[in-house]
């Protein structure tokens, strides 16, 4: 049984008799270990370590910081498999998918390696006679990242490479459901030469989050998780004077126009709906089929779903793994009966899916639910509107582009969306009018590259800056503008007038 604790000041720290939470093997349902849950004293110790490390790290040259990042990048690269195995064992996703999240996270490290260029300011000579102005961006101090269970490596890597490259010190509070990846990353930072205290990990729950949100020495908080907690973190953090970006939940729609290639659409819908068992904030959970393509498209989706292999994440034959916990699986599964009650047709029932090495999903130990397809889901029903966050794909039939667009724009969330069509004019109108932060045109999971920024609209993001990319650099720095004049003979004496250019 493993026991996971904190990483503070460059070393593992255990509080001994602290509160703990269980870590499961989702494929078997067995308890695999425990994770400590930080109390206020451990949070304060982590903040103190990060605060003590800040002055020297802030003053480390850009080139020195970049070199640490380059070394971290190389170490992470050579530990990809180990990291993916840790993720798969606690989250349940298949190994290849875990490798994918490590790769996407590494792209942010690679982006942050360019920090000397990213922090370049502007310079204007002679803004007034013999007066120059220049802008600089400076780090904030101690910053924190609070992350969800579904990407235990990638989502933290959306945050800490940029924050650390900018000269801040960082405290990661990962999900208590799959905490091990955070400690491997902490030890690789140390091996890369990052000074102790610049990167810290606090395992924990609401107690740790609340203390981080109110601690006077924490300057900014990045959060990714469900919408109710994102809203709470944003409101509480900003009430305590902090800069906060809080990314929330999602309900992503794919609009399928009648001219689309339905084989391409079916491949995309199944990949984006059931990859990582639907536990992705960019998963497609609703297909809006514009008449008359619904019947043909559903047939193609069902044919593909029935060929999927569901099994343990460490079995190379598995394409989809279990859900993260039994509680979450039960919540997701409850939407199957709800959907039928609301008038949908259950065309593939994931409770009966055969599991590799076991029986039907519902009868096999572990947190299993196979890919599920609900057709004729009524627009506006709970199954259509609520975030299910599991392997449940809903098909809503609509009569037109406009009806589909309206359904997307009246939804609570605005994280990701996609249109599938061969009509460039329709695609252009869609990307122009849709009220969603990340849009795919014939691309079902339009996750921006590291050098663009990731973030949704409406209840999918509280705050105004998205993560990583240039907006990430902006979030983790403060701007300063210097206006300078060196003494010269034109010095004109006292003037109480408002400074004007001369
Ligand atoms: P969650 O909101 O339950 O937990 C996220 C973090 O908040 C965890 O670290 C958790 O320990 C902490 N937390 C939980 N309850 C808390 C409370 N009451 N007070 C303070 N902190 C609390 O989310 P999750 O179940 O881990 O992750 C899934 C959710 O994350 C989904 O809603 C998904 O859409 C969302 N998500 C969003 C994005 C995005 O980019 N918008 C990305 C990934 C996941």
Automatic annotation (TrEMBL):
InterPro entries, per the entry: Ald_DH/histidinol_DH, Ald_DH_C, Ald_DH_CS_CYS, Ald_DH_N, Aldehyde_DH_dom, MeMal-semiAld_DH
GO biological process, one term: thymine catabolic process
Residues in coiled coil: none
Domain Aldehyde dehydrogenase: residue ranges: 17-482
Domain of life: Bacteria
Membrane-spanning intervals of the chain: none
Molecular functions per Gene Ontology: methylmalonate-semialdehyde dehydrogenase (acylating, NAD) activity
EC number, UniProt record: 1.2.1.27
CDD domains attached to this UniProt entry: ALDH_F6_MMSDH (cd07085)
Keywords: NAD, Oxidoreductase
Protein name: methylmalonate-semialdehyde dehydrogenase (CoA acylating)
Species of the source: Sinosporangium siamense
């Amino acid at each position: 049984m493993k026991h996971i604790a904190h990483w503070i000041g460059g070393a593992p720290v255990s509080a001994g008799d602290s509160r703990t939470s269980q870590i499961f093997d989702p494929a078997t349902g067995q308890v695999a270990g425990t994770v400590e849950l930080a109390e206020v004293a451990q949070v304060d110790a982590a903040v103190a370590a990060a605060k003590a490390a800040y002055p020297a790290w802030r003053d480390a040259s850009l080139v020195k910081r970049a070199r640490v990042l380059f070394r971290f990048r190389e170490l992470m690269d050579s530990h990809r498999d180990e990291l993916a195995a840790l993720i798969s064992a606690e989250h349940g996703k298949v190994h290849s998918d875990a490798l994918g999240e490590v790769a996407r996270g590494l792209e942010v490290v690679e982006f942050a390696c360019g920090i000397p260029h990213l922090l370049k300011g502007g310079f204007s000579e002679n803004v007034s006679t013999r007066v120059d102005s220049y802008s600089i961006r400076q780090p904030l101090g101690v910053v924190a990242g609070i992350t969800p269970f579904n990407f235990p490596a990638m989502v933290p890597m959306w945050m800490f490479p940029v924050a650390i490259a900018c000269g801040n010190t960082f405290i990661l509070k990962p999900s208590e459901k799959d905490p091990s990846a955070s400690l491997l990353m902490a030890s690789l930072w140390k091996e890369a030469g990052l000074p102790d205290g610049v990167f810290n990990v606090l395992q924990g729950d609401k107690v740790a989050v609340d203390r981080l949100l109110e601690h006077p020495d924490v300057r900014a908080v990045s959060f990714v998780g469900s919408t109710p907690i994102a809203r709470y973190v944003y409101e509480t953090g900003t009430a305590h004077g902090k800069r906060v970006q809080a990314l929330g939940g999602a309900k992503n729609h794919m609009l399928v126009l009648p001219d689309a290639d339905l084989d391409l659409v079916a491949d995309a819908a199944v990949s984006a709906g059931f990859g990582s068992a639907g536990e992705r904030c960019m998963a497609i959970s609703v297909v809006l089929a514009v008449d008359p393509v619904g019947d043909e498209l559903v047939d193609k989706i069902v044919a593909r779903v029935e060929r999927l292999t569901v099994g343990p994440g460490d079995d190379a034959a598995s394409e989809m793994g279990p859900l993260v916990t039994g509680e979450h699986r039960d919540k997701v599964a409850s939407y199957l009966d709800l959907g039928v009650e609301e008038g949908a047709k259950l065309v593939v029932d994931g409770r009966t899916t055969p599991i590799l090495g076991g029986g039907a999903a519902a009868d096999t130990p572990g947190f299993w639910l196979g890919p599920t397809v609900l057709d004729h889901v009524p627009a506006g029903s709970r199954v259509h509107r609520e975030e299910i966050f599991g392997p449940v794909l809903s098909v809503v039939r609509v009569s037109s582009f406009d009806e589909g667009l309206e359904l997307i724009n009246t939804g609570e969330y605005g994280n990701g969306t996609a249109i599938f069509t061969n009509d460039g004019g329709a695609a252009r109108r869609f990307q122009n009018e849709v009220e969603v932060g990340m849009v795919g045109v014939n691309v079902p999971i339009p996750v921006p590259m590291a050098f663009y920024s990731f973030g949704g609209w409406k209840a999918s993001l509280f705050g105004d800056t998205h993560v990583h990319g240039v907006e990430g650099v902006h979030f983790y720095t403060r701007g300063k503008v210097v206006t300078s004049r060196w003494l010269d003979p034109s010095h004109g004496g006292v003037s109480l007038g408002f400074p004007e250019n001369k």
